[in-house]
Amino acid sequence: MNLADGAVRPAYETLARWLKTIPTDLLATRSREAEALFRRIGITFAVYGDAASTERLIPFDVIPRVLTNDEWVRLSKGLTQRVRAINAFLGDVYSKREILRAGLVPEDLVYRNPAFRPEMNQQPVPHGIYVMIAGIDIVRVDADTFYVLEDNARTPSGVSYMLENREVMIRLFPELFSQHRVAPVENYTDDLLATMKSVAPRSASSDPTCVLLTPGLFNSAYYEHTFLADKLGVELVEGRDLFVKADVVYMRTTEGPKRVDVIYRRLDDDFLDPLVFRPDSALGVPGIMSAYHAGNVTLANAVGTGVADDKAVYSYMPEIVKFYLGEEPILKNVPTWRCREADELKYVLDKLPELVVKEVHGSGGYGMLIGPKATTAEIETFREKLIKDPSNFIAQPTLALSTCPTLVEEGVAPRHVDLRPFVLTGRDKVRIVPGGLTRVALKEGSLVVNSSQGGGTKDTWVLDS
């Protein structure tokens, strides 16, 4: 909210004045009202392996995060560029593999990647688009610098919280909204449906049938699946609701079988088709990959996209952007050391107490070390892991992430935030609603914003002017 000299940034001037006039106890009351609304709606997430509490509310902070229109325009251009490059990279590694032959990305990072799917080799995808729905995690380190922290190219989650956060803020703070020109986010589901229909197979009718495929009630993001299906106006289906006949996917309905053209899947590759991947999976649809390869159904996102959101591959994104687009990256990566390289491993081991170390396939804030916050024992344990399997880790500097005013028990205080905008890539265009999901680390000094690690969310306001 503030510049280095303490002055309030222009985007926050109105909010800063409002915070000075509103009592902290009123903010706390509104926060409790928001929690009650979320609980009534049923917005929960599950924490796998947590026996104490399988269902939780993600904490919601009632003080919004604000971006200017100029900042958003710059972010949008960078996000569009990055997702274009990701799609080009995936199309290449499953076909000509020119970037591997050029030696810009090591072959073993692709071929030994658990998310690489040989079944997709030389298999075209509808309209050449692999990632229709991307969530790109952004961090800010100063007034002018944004970094990409992570690419989510498989089944990015959190958009339901972005939409519900906005509804709750409008309901609880209408007077604050009236003082700002906030760009809307509620058209996201219209954009998503338009994107899905635009990538329907060529054999589909003029009004393609779309569905959302969920693993079922016990999935951690099941609320989001039901929310999105309802907002999209499409059927929420499980694997048992679909079947394949003559390489065409059908949905069971009370009026008989109905052809399905586009499947927004929230099901991992492994469980998608027991005839191709895990034979013990009861969640998927036998034969769906045959229909996919025949070009009779579109899967959003495509199978095998996880190669692109691997943290080791992430470190090559600047080269990937230049290779496929011939452009300098608009959004830069966080400086990254690849522990698989001997010189960089030596540096990381020497500087371990100062760095953040992550597993290349890790997620959710797990499997990482934050050196400045770690104990000596934790550092030494990670040192052993690095020496034993260096290729499984990357390291980054401990960034001074931007903070936003946040309501905590002691009052309003700064807490670190990141931002996950959602990028929709269709056959006709790229769509990005202004804003995204701001995640906030509620623990003082914490840099981990993940909900599974105690993080919360905020509404994200992009000012129209």
From TrEMBL:
One of the Pfam families matching this protein, by short name: CP_ATPgrasp_2
Highest taxon of source: Bacteria
Circularly permuted ATP-grasp type domain span: 64-441
Protein name in UniProt: Circularly permuted ATP-grasp type 2 domain-containing protein
Taxonomic source organism: Phreatobacter cathodiphilus
